[in-house]
Amino acid sequence: MLGRRLATLLALVLTTAALLVTGTATGALADPASPTPAYAPLDRPGPALDVPTATLRAAMQCHGTPGKGPRAVFLNPATSVTPDENYSWNWEPLFDGQGRYWCTMTMPFHTFGDIQTAAEYIVYAIRTMYHSTGGKVAILGHSQGGMSGRWALRFWPDLRHMVSEVIGMAPSNHGTKSLATCIVGVTRCVPAVWQQAYGSQFIQALNSRAETFRGIDYTNIYTAFDEVVTPPKSAGLTTGQGRISNIKVQSVCPLDPYEHVLMGTVSNTVYSLVMDALTHPGPADADRVPASACSRLYMPGIDPTDIDTLTTPLMALPTLVSTAVPDITFSGAPLLPREPKVRCYAFVDRCRR
């Protein structure tokens, strides 16, 4: 049974998450009358990084011994949170106990900034981890973090041989129809909210030509109760040459109660699927998850009586709440009247070379 403190946390986060569903993002959608742009070939080398190396280095935190222990993991944060708020009270101590080397990146503006900029942080992290460990890296991400690594893989093909798998917990792979109301010319929203709207130019470029790549396994875990990424099954992937597994948690544990925020932070069903993906060849296989996984309400390592378990995620509440209110940001992220332009490297001939 959950302790009273953890139950309080769950109630607060659920209430906050419900605030996110205040309307449908409009105006971020592509003009149906516009011709489909020609996107960059899948094998074109990626551009040089614009973010200074010193900035990227300072944003990266790693723990453990490179090259030792199980597969190294890059923990990619969700929209509105830092890695500490997202992972320091759940996944990081769990990986420490496994002797697993892991790294995180603190993205600009609590991960509310332009996802194209965040992708440069991911590129740097994957290259750095690969060279320090001498082996492939797994990307584990929640929400935006389950999707944004794919932008790096799509437009920096040199990364593909460095990555073993991409594991998304409620990933926004095709955007979402449930977001704060963002209307071009009327309201202003932070870049990452615009970009994760269903049909955005960013989402179209992300999924252009192929969604997955040979040699990389893709596990996409979603919940029937997702109120942020909707429809929930849009988290899945279908195209490309990577091995794909799209799993609804209720198909594994029918009574799993968690929605978007909590499935990536406390769900034992999600934990079981993540560990299956990390410890077996190929993506996660729901049939390998034992029935006993459904008897636990939260993942190992979470102590419902530990005050740090409660206070760390609660630190994210102010920025999380600001997601739901256009024209307001507590993160310092710029407020824009429309989606940021997709950068020229995503297209066939829009960068001068």
Task: Give the gist of this structure.
The protein has 353 residues and is an alpha/beta fold.
| Terminus-to-terminus distance | 61 Å
Shape: globular
Which spans have pLDDT < 50 for at least 5 consecutive residues?
1-5, 7-28
Element pattern in H and E: HHEEHHEHEHEHHEEHHHHH
User: Rg to the nearest angstrom?
Assistant: 19 Å
Walkthrough of the structure:
The chain has helices at 4-19, 53-59, 83-87, 91-98, 115-133, 144-155, 191-195, 201-206, 249-252, 260-263, 268-279, 307-314, 317-322; strands at 60-63, 72-76, 102-105, 137-142, 163-169, 217-222, 243-248. The chain has 353 residues and is of the alpha/beta class. Helices cover 32% and strands 11% of the residues. The model is unreliable at 1-5 and 7-28 (pLDDT under 50). The chain has a 7-stranded mixed β-sheet, sandwiched between helices. The radius of gyration is 19 Å and the shape is globular. The termini are far apart.
Question: How do the strands and helices of this protein lay out in sequence?
Answer:
Blueprint: H1 4-19, H2 53-59, E1 60-63, E2 72-76, H3 83-87, H4 91-98, E3 102-105, H5 115-133, E4 137-142, H6 144-155, E5 163-169, H7 191-195, H8 201-206, E6 217-222, E7 243-248, H9 249-252, H10 260-263, H11 268-279, H12 307-314, H13 317-322
Parallel strand pairs: 2-3, 2-4, 4-5, 5-6, 6-7
Antiparallel strand pairs: 1-3
